[in-house]
Amino acid sequence: MDYRSLLCVLTDSDFAKAPLAQGVALAETQDAHLDVLALGVDRSQTGYFYAGADAMLMQEMLRRARDEAEAIQKTATEALSVTNTRWGCDTGVAQIADLGRHVAARARFADLVILPKPYGKTQGTELEPTLEAALFEGQAPVLMVPEAAAPITTPKTISIGWNESAEALVATRAALPFLKAADVVHVVVIDPPTHGPNRSDPGGLLSQFLSRHGVRVEVDVLSKTQPRISDVLLRHATDTKTDMIVMGAYGHSRFREAILGGATRNMLEQANIPVFLAH
C-alpha cells in the first residue's frame, strides 16, 4: 500500500518544524493528504493542588492549553499554506493523563504518523506518551524525525533491525513502500541465535520475502561489540550511510524499557536520522 493519509501530532511549536517538513515532503511524493493535530496539553496534576484551588487552577491550565493549541495551529498553518500539499489542521486540548485517547483516535485512521524526537533536554513530557499512544492504542506505524534531520521522500539506503520478532516483522511490512523504492535495504542481524530453524541462514526468510516484492536486499550479520543493540545499529547506519532505520518498537514492556532501558528507548534517544517504528 501507499501512504495516503499522513498525520502529524504537534504538542509544542518549538518541535513542529521537522515533522511538518517531513509531512509535506511525503505528502507531495506520495500524493497524500496531511492532517495536523495541534494539541494543547494541560500538564497539571490536579490531585496535588491545595484544597479549594482545583477549579480556579484547572480553568487557568485549560486556558493555557487552548492558547498553546492555537499557537501550534498558527505555526502549522503558516508552514503549510505556502505548499502545494493537501492538508488540514485541527486543534484540541487534553490533560496529560488522557493524552493517549486523543492521539489514538486520530492515529488509527492514518497510514503513517509523523512525530518529533521524544527525548532530549528540552523536550516536554508529553512527547513520549504521544508516540506510544500512536503505536499501541492507534496501531499505526510511526516515523520519528529528529530536529536536525533533512526530510526524506524515497530513502536510498535503509537498515532493518531484524531480530525475528513479531514487532520487527510488522514494522517491515508497514515500511514496504519505502523499502521497494530504496536502492539497497540492509537486513541487520546482531548476534543471531545459535539454535533454531534459522540459525544457518539468519535473515534469509525475510530477505526472500522482501526480494519477492522487488526489494534489493543485503543481509548483514554483526556481533554485539558495543554495550547496546542501538549502538551497533547506529554505527552500522553511519558506516553504510543509511537514510532511515526500520525496527519493531517495544519488544519488552514500556514500563521495563522506561526503568531499565531497551533498544527502542535507546534508539529514540540517540538517533540522528529518521526511525520507522511499528508494534
Please explain how this structure is put together.
The model has no long low-confidence stretch (mean pLDDT 90). Helix 3 (99-107) packs across helix 4 (127-135) and helix 8 crosses helix 10. Helix content is 39%, strand content 22%. It has helices spanning 17-30, 54-80, 99-107, 127-135, 166-174, 176-181, 204-211, 229-239, 254-260, 263-270, and strands spanning 5-10, 33-42, 86-95, 112-116, 142-145, 157-161, 184-190, 217-222, 244-248, 275-278. It is an alpha/beta fold and 279 residues long. The chain is built from ten helices and ten strands. The protein has a ten-stranded mixed beta sheet, with helices on both faces. The radius of gyration is 20 Å and the shape is globular.
Q: Secondary-structure blueprint of this entry?
A:
Blueprint: E1 5-10, H1 17-30, E2 33-42, H2 54-80, E3 86-95, H3 99-107, E4 112-116, H4 127-135, E5 142-145, E6 157-161, H5 166-174, H6 176-181, E7 184-190, H7 204-211, E8 217-222, H8 229-239, E9 244-248, H9 254-260, H10 263-270, E10 275-278
Parallel strand pairs: 1-2, 1-4, 2-3, 4-5, 6-7, 6-9, 7-8, 9-10
Antiparallel strand pairs: 5-10
Helix pairs in contact: 3-4, 8-10
